[in-house]
């Protein structure tokens, strides 16, 4: 079975600083997508960023970027210039069977 | 946040009750999903419908019964639930089904409590 592992249940970052959330996954497939989703408290889950496995270039969306290491099956999320609104649960997901990690709760300190 | 709606937002039911959760998507997507989100557990995919055809997760107990009458509506019928079924039930849609760039668009969820 394919698994998605987020080894950091909780993370904390100072406002305006940078934080990296880790995710590893297991698959025997070569073509897939990986996603990071954000679930703010009492609000709907939304997509933060996606990465296609065939693309070597790491995806970037404004302050959010990924470090995709296909051989190592690692897919970390970097949040730069952290803002109070970034506080949320963050989930890593693997698309072929929509398997999610357990999530990382990010706290942003003012 | 209005692309995928879910009703009711909160539901309390006894173990002998029968209730239904409703999901509606206004995005023109072809696939819809039910997820279960329990505290301290990964989000669990329960059911997928793609073009109104069901792709089922076989580990879901039969007390959960999905229904997809058209590509915009999805129901989850509940009967004789157990207290451990208490959770947040999330509905999602995507332009296409499993595989590929199937970004999920989530609803706000139904918080279910089984007494």
Low-confidence stretches of chain A: none
For the record, give the distance between the C-alpha atoms at the N and C termini of chain A, rounded to a whole number: 41 Å
General shape of chain B: globular
Helix content of chain B: under 10%
Over all CA atoms, what is the radius of gyration of chain A?
13 Å
Structural class of chain B: mainly beta
Can you tell me the residue ranges of chain B where pLDDT is under 50 for at least 5 consecutive residues? none
Distance between the termini of chain B: 30 Å
Largest interface, with counts of residues having CB < 8 Å to the other chain, equals: A-B, 22 and 21 residues
Oligomer: heterodimer
Give the count of helical stretches of chain B: 0
Number of E-type strands of chain B:
11
Write down how many β-strands of chain A occur, each being a DSSP E stretch of 2 or more residues. Answer: 12
Roughly what percent helix of chain A? under 10%
What's the overall geometry of chain A? globular
Structure in words:
The complex is a heterodimer of chains A (110) and B (115). Chain A has 110 residues and is mostly beta strands. Chain A contains no helices and twelve strands. The relative contact order of chain A is 0.35. Helix content of chain B is 0%, strand content 55%. In chain B, the strands form two sheets. In chain B, strands 2, 4, 5, 6, 9, 10 and 11 form a seven-stranded mixed sheet that branches. Chain B has a four-stranded antiparallel sheet with strand order 1-3-8-7, with no helix packed on it. Chain B is globular, with a radius of gyration of 13 Å. The termini of chain B are far apart. The A-B interface holds A 4, 33, 35, 37, 43-47, 50, 52, 91, 93, 95-103 and B 1, 4, 33, 40-43, 45, 48, 90, 98-104, 106-109.
